[in-house]
Structure formats: structure tokens, C-alpha cells
Design a protein that fits this description.
By secondary structure, the chain is α/β, with parallel strands linked by helices. The protein has one domain (21-302): Alpha-Beta Barrel (TIM Barrel), CATH 3.20.20. It is 45% helix and 15% strand. The chain has helices spanning 7-12, 28-35, 50-63, 69-83, 97-101, 105-119, 137-144, 171-179, 194-203, 219-227, 236-241, 253-258, 270-273, 277-286, 292-302, and strands at residues 15-21, 86-94, 124-132, 155-159, 183-188, 208-211, 232-234, 263-265. Helix 2 (28-35) runs antiparallel to helix 4 (69-83), helix 4 runs parallel beside helix 6 (105-119) and helix 9 (194-203) packs parallel to helix 10 (219-227). The radius of gyration is 18 Å and the shape is globular. It binds zinc ion (ZN). Zinc ion (ZN) binds at residues 19, 21, 159, 187, 210, 268. Residues 19, 21, 159, 187, 210, 268 line the site of zinc ion.
Length: 303
Amino acid sequence: MPDPIDIRGYRALPKSDCHNHCMLGGKRSVIEKHYGKKLGRFKAKQSGIGELNSWIGNELRPFFQLPDAFEKAVEAAFIQAKVDGVTRLEMSIDVLFPMMFHVPATRIVTALKYFHQAVAPEIDFCPELGFPRNKSMRSLLAGFEPFLNFDYFRSVDLYDDEFAQPVGNFKELFRFAKGLGMKCKAHAGEFGSSDSVKEAAEVLELDAVQHGIGAAGSPAIMKWLADHQIPLNICPTSNIKLLIVRSYKTHPIRILFDHGVKVTINTDDALVFGDGVSEQFFKLRRAGVFTDEELDLIRMNGL
Ligand SMILES: [Zn+2]
């Protein structure tokens, strides 16, 4: 294992990123160069998803008005993964992106295929479709449909405001995706309780939970997750920057790990929160949360 004071050692190790939102996953310097100016830094004043959505609206929306901004964002996301030493990448595209930014599904698939091959063909890339939980089923289905022609996407994720509508509203959508052979994932227990993690996992028949840190509040639910081998794709820096968790030292990933829950470490939004997977391994090690051997177990969970 690498010297814990040297970030380069972590970058050199093969690792996964199973929780990555492509449009927010780019290497900042690449985006800023294309944009021609610096993006403002994200700093939350209170816990919740609202300030993040405001930041996206204020900082990134103008960027996406530029021609080729979509392609540049995809390229930046693959560059970020490559420099981070990611060898397995599950990265989502929002099904409503074509409607919001007038980028047709075919252009999205073309860009993902092109930049995967051009930037990081060595990465085992699993393209994913993301569904925002605060939108109507009607608009989500309309957004999903054009992507179905490509037989390209391998997983689905449900995200954005965890409290926007009951998870049961998405049961049929997820059952349909599962029927197509897609891996089913959803954000739960980021801000919500342990019960919300189990409910999402059961109702949507999840193969993995995005975040899921709320489960640390219940030994019974941690046991249930461990028994069912449902991994949590955790993003410690995101949790800290969104003021859900105070520090790496107090992050509930340690409690989850100690209760036998399979955990992985992921970026969420490297463009916004600033850290790749390697930086988070480094910070968890430096804070004394895990030993080298434990971090290696966690790293292997995602591979
Ligand atoms: Zn996320």
C-alpha cells in the first residue's frame, strides 16, 4: 500500500468510481479553460441539496450555453477519472439533459463513446442513465425513451431531492430497467434516515445504494444491507461539503464498515467538491479512519 502521506501512491492504484454524475464530474481546469473564466467555488451555508442546485444554476448553466460545452464536459469527466487512476467507472447522464440543453440523445451517446476511447480506453466504463426524483414520471419516461434505442446504458440511478416524492412512484420504472438487464441504483440515506435506505433498496430492488450513510443509525438495517450484500457507494467529501457530516474522522463510513456493510469510495461531483477518489482515500487514511489494509479492502469492493 502507498505511503499515507503521498497522494500519488493512491492515484497509481486501480480503483473504481461507482457514483459519478458526468456533467459535474469534470476536471475543473479543463472546463474553465473551455469556458474562458473561473467557476465560482461551492460553499454551503446549510445542509441540503438546495444550495448545490443554485450553484449549478448560477455557475454551470451559462457554461452549457456555449457550443460544444456538452462534449467538453464529457471529455473533462474522462480526464478527471484518468488522472485519478480510476479503472472502473459508472457515470450517469441525466435523462432530461437533451430537453434542458437541446443536445439530442444520439449526440450524447456519440460523445460518451468517443471520449471514452479518445481519453481513457483502458477504463471499464459503465454508462448510466440518471432520473431526477423531483420531476414527473411523464417527463422522465419521455426523457428515457430516446436512450432506449442505443442498447448502450448499463445502469440507472435516481437522484436529486430525496424527499421530492415517494420512492414507490419509481417502482415500475425500475422494474422496467431491471427487465432490460440494467443495474439498479438510487440515492437514499444521503439526508434521509436508515429506514429510507431499506425502503428504497426493497421497493426499487436495488443492486447498490448511492450514499446510504443514513443506514449507520440502525444496526438492524446495517445487518440487513450486509446480509443482502447491497453495497453503499459513499462520497465522503460530498457529505462533508454538503454539511451532512462534520469531518472525515467522524464520517459514518467507519460504523458501516464495522457492521459488515460493503462500502466503496466515490466522487459524486468532482467538479463541485474538488476531490477525486484518490484524495478521499488519502484524507481518510490521514485522519486515521482506516488502516492501509482496510482501505485496500474498500478499494477492491468497487473493482
Ligand atoms: Zn450523487
